[in-house]
């Protein structure tokens, strides 16, 4: 232990010597830093002195520029402008004197044109003087800009000095902190650096002393490391301060060079401007002298021209007198000429009017003949007839440009309409076009011939097509006070039946169905929500029928009203952004007419399909969501399938995709060539609906070009043994459902719908 303690004492002495050496080095470094800081302060003072000298030089330059050259230059230009203004006034006085010397008879002579040219030259001189003044203003502005640039340079120098002062202050604080740290280290007791050696002893005190010595040695090593780190940081700060000082020196030199360059540029520009001003003044003066000389020469020429114009003036006076005599005799000659011209023009107008009336009469006769031939050709070819109907503008269309009328009609041809779409007019030709003011009666008069052919044993199909809110349901069903095609057709059938009851026996039955979300439902059945299927007749005729579809036999108009009311209760309608009562399904009214000629035994069967298609709609505009969105998707899909069928029929393809949709499958009999088919296309005239109107009319033109072939009559000679066979089986009871698309429970059926169904059964 004693040997270890002695060794520790020696190590302590060695560490003290090393500490003294470090303290001496630290003191020497502090002295170096103090000397460097003093040197930097001296450099800063030198920079401040240079900045003051630069500021004084800038002030001197500013005073010289602002108070000497610029002012002298401005005064010279003002004096020159005043002289030019006096010369202009003198020229104007001379021109006024020349005008006073002119005489009245020579107003149209050549010297006036020369005077006008001189005035234009004078105005040009005035404009040049104005340009000279503008150049002076630009020079003043340029001098002001250079002064501002000098001020900016001065501000930048001041900012550099402030930054330098802040850097010096920061270095001073760091030096003071370093000095305080060194002083605190000096005040601490001397520490011992020791070397740990492993000595196995048994004394606890010796072990404790050894541990304390080791911890003390570790602490001293950490302190020495910290001091070395502080010294290294101070060296780095000193290097950064030296770099900053070098950068400041470079900036000062750059500022001095920029000041010298700006001063030289200003002197050069001032000299160039002075030379340009003198040159412009000399040129203007020389031009003015030349022009004044030309004015004097022109004036002399004018005076000589005045002497030569007197004989010409006498000749003009003689011609004037002769013309005056002719003018006195002119009114009588003019009146006589006008009378004869009026008579000839009146006769020509009368001839043209009579010719136009005859041509118009022939044109109308030819137009009627053409329509008659066209209808006969359509009948023979079996084309689908297409009628168009335009609904009026309503308050639901709103106001403003979007509610403007975009549809116009041809005054001479009731089968043509014009649509204004995106600034371009597009024309469409249909079989018949009904304007907004057309009544339900006028529309039905055009289709009643098709309806009556149903009694003669033909299949007839009338369907309404168009966008939602275009008036399809109104055209097909109408209102109670103003019924549509459906009710008027049945009324016409009853009227025809009554007119032929002396020779014929007829039985009329009605069925109503709808296609909702690609599901066929019976609107007159006991369970309206039950889905039905379309099948081929088992008799091998190739006709389609719907098993389970309820049929009611109707015998009067009252029965028709009950059927329609019952069907309306079960039809699916909802409110959308485009239509308050939008039909959400395709409605089909199927009227079957069985006839028997008692004298010949001829038996006929005719079918009338009245279809109210659901309106095509754009989901973004109609605001359909949830179930409304699903309904819109099914509606658009079925209408798209109808378009595919029309395309296949038009292009005469071998396969027609009738089975792609329940709608096209159910209309297969009407579109396959064994039916008289009419499409009523409904359009909206509002500007905001022109895109949908254009699509509907284009589809109508494609449908119009479809040829289905000649229509055959369903008639055969057979006996009709009993009235019961004509009437058929008693139709089943029909239960209405509430409006909507959810299946109601029996307790939710309204009493009104139940009473209607009972009345239908009783009348049947």
From TrEMBL:
It comes from the Eukaryota. GO terms for molecular function: ATP binding; microtubule binding; microtubule motor activity. Residues 5-188, 231-287 form a coiled coil. PROSITE patterns: KINESIN_MOTOR_1 (PS00411), KINESIN_MOTOR_2 (PS50067). Residues 755-764 have a biased composition (Basic residues). Gene3D superfamilies: Kinesin motor domain. It is a peripheral membrane protein. Residues 383-706 form the Kinesin motor domain. Residues 713-764 are annotated as: Disordered. ATP binds at residues 466-473. InterPro entries: Kinesin-like_fam, Kinesin_motor_CS, Kinesin_motor_dom, Kinesin_motor_dom_sf, P-loop_NTPase. Keywords: ATP-binding, Cell junction, Coiled coil, Cytoplasm, Cytoplasmic vesicle, Cytoskeleton, Membrane, Microtubule, Motor protein, Nucleotide-binding, Phosphoprotein. One of its GO terms (biological process) is microtubule-based movement. It is found in: Cell junction, Adherens junction; Cytoplasm, Cytoskeleton, Microtubule organizing center, Centrosome; Cytoplasmic vesicle membrane. Belongs to the TRAFAC class myosin-kinesin ATPase superfamily. Kinesin family. This is Kinesin-like protein. It comes from Nipponia nippon (Crested ibis). The lineage of its organism: Eukaryota, Metazoa, Chordata, Craniata, Vertebrata.
